[in-house]
Design goal:
2 copies of one chain form a homodimer. Chain A is built from 8 helices and 11 strands. The first copy, chain A, has 250 residues and is of the alpha+beta class. Chain A is globular and about 55 Å long. The structure holds a DNA duplex (30 and 30 nucleotides).
Chain lengths: 250, 250
DNA sequence: CGGCACTTTGATCGTGGTCAATAAGTGTGG
DNA sequence: CCACACTTATTGACCACGATCAAAGTGCCG
C-alpha cells in the first residue's frame, strides 16, 4: 500500500463523482455510466432539484430514509450524534457524491450543507426499481459501498493512531486531492469548514486544530487566503507528516 | 436512536451469522437463505475448508483477493498497518462472519485467528458467478456492507469522542452481545483477545486497557474467570458508561 | 521446575483538552 | 463608508487523561 492511500481515502465517500441524477449537471458518470439511453430516460424526470443555504440540513439522523440524494453543488458534512449530545462529523461530501443511501428505514446520520448549494433527490423506491431493472447499477452501489468502507477504516486508523498534527495534515492533503479530483487547478483550495467542523471530524478540539494550522503556517507549509482559501505551499511536507513521516518520502 | 446502538454495532461486521459456505456447519443462513436447493447445490462443492491455529494469518494485507472466506469456528481480528509500522485492529470477527470480500484486486487489511478455528474459502470468481445467477445474493451483500459501514461509523464516533473507560466498557458489552447473538447463554463470556489487541482496536495502550478492566473489577462490574473468561456482573453499569452515562439509564 | 507470554500496578511525562482573553473577519444597518 | 454586533480564529496558561517506562506478579506449557 502506498503510504498516502490511507489519507487519500480519508475523506472520500460513497459515490465520488457518481451522480444518480440525470438532469442535474454534467457529472452524471459513474453509477449511470453502464446504462443505455433508454435507462437514463427511464430514471430522469423522477428526480427533484433542491436548493439549500449554508448550514441547512439536507436530512437529519433518524429521518425516514425515503430518498437518495446527489450533491450537485457545494459541500456538506455528515454528522452522527450520541444520546448524551456528543457528536462527531463522520465525513464530508462534495459535488457529485451520493448521500443517504441505506437499506435501513431511517437515516443513521444527518447531512448538513457547509456552503450554499443544490441537491438532487430521487425517491428510494424508484431507485429500488432501477436496481431490479438494471442490476449492473446495484453492483456499482456495492462497489462504492466497499470503497467507502475502506475509507472509513482508514479514518479509524487515523483516529486511533495519528497525532493531532498528523490528522490535520492528512485532512488538508485529502481536501486538496478531493478538489483536484473534481477538476480544481492551482495551489489555492477551498476550506469551507470551520475549525470546529474539522475538529469534530478528526476527534480534536477546535483549539488543537487551530494550533496545528498555525504551526504549519509558521513552518511555511501552508498559507491562508481570506477566510476560506488555503494554499498548500509545501504539500510534500504535509503529506509526509500525514503518512507517518520516515516511511518513504518519495 | 437507542443509546446503545452505537456500542452494539461496534464489533459487528460484514455478515454476522451469514455464512456463504454450504457444507461447513449449520449456520448457513442469512446470505443464502433466499436461495433454493438447486442454488445451494450449485455453490457447494466449490468451497474448501481450512483449519488454522491461534495467531495464524487467514490472509494478509496486500494479498491478491482471490477468495472470500467464512469463519466457521473461532474468532479472528482484522488489522491494517501503516507504512511506518503503526497498526490498528479495525475489527473482530466470529463464527458465521464473512471475511475478505472486496471488489478490489488486493485485500486492504489482514485477518488473523485469535483462537484456533476453521474457515471456509470460496473462489471469488465463483462468487461473482453466483451473483450473476442469483441477484438476490448480491443484494444481501450490499445490505450487509451498508450495515458494516454503519458499524464503522459508530467505531469512528467511539474513537473520536469516548474516554478510555467508555471505550473498554463498550467493547465488553459488544463482545457479550456478539456472543449472545450466536447462541451463547450464561453470564460468563469468552475473551480470547489480549489486552494489546483490545488496545489496538480501541486506540489505547495495553496498560490503559488493563487499568480500565481493573477498575471495573474493583467496582464489582465484572469478574474474571481464568485467562479468557469474563463475567459481566453489572452489565447495566457498563452499558450506561458505554452509551454516555446520564442519557437514559433504563 | 523453569521459561515465557501476558497482565497488573506504579511513577512520571507529554499531548491535547479546558478555560479564558484577544484578534480577525464578516455582515448589517445607519 | 464606517460603526457595531457577531461569528470564527488565535494564543496563552493550566490541567488531566492516557502514554511511556519500569518492575513485579500470574498463569500456562514444556
Amino acid at each position: 500500500m502506498h503510504p498516502l492511500d490511507a489519507t487519500r481515502a480519508l475523506m472520500e465517500g460513497l459515490g465520488s463523482e457518481s451522480s444518480i441524477c440525470m438532469k442535474c449537471g454534467s457529472r452524471s458518470v459513474g453509477l449511470c455510466a453502464p446504462l443505455d439511453a433508454a435507462a437514463l430516460d427511464d430514471m430522469s424526470g423522477e428526480s427533484e432539484r433542491l436548493a439549500f443555504d449554508q448550514r441547512d440540513a439536507i436530512f437529519r439522523q433518524g429521518d425516514a430514509a425515503r430518498h437518495v440524494y446527489t450533491l450537485t453543488e457545494g459541500m456538506a458534512r455528515l454528522t452522527r450524534v450520541l444520546p448524551d449530545g456528543r457528536q462527531a462529523v463522520i465525513g464530508f461530501r462534495f459535488a457529485g457524491d451520493i448521500l443517504g443511501f441505506t437499506p435501513e428505514a431511517e437515516h443513521a446520520f444527518g447531512a448538513e450543507m457547509l456552503t450554499r448549494g443544490t441537491v438532487c433527490r430521487l425517491d428510494r423506491r424508484r431507485l429500488e426499481q432501477m436496481f431490479r431493472r438494471y442490476p449492473v447499477m446495484e453492483r456499482r452501489f456495492l462497489d462504492l459501498c466497499v470503497k467507502e468502507l475502506s475509507a472509513s477504516q482508514d479514518h479509524i486508523l487515523a483516529l486511533g493512531r495519528f497525532s493531532a498534527e498528523e490528522r490535520v495534515a492528512a485532512f488538508l492533503v485529502s481536501l486538496a486531492e478531493a478538489q483536484e479530483r473534481r477538476g480544481h487547478v492551482g495551489p489555492v483550495f477551498d476550506l469551507p469548514t470551520t475549525r470546529a467542523d474539522i475538529g469534530e471530524f478528526l476527534g480534536l478540539t477546535l483549539e488543537t486544530v487551530s494550533r496545528a494550522v498555525s504551526s504549519f503556517r509558521k513552518r511555511g507549509w501552508i498559507r491562508l487566503h481570506g477566510h476560506s482559501g488555503i494554499e498548500l505551499s509545501d504539500r510534500n511536507a504535509l503529506a509526509c507528516l500525514a503518512a507517518g513521516e520516515g516511511a518513504d518520502a518519495a
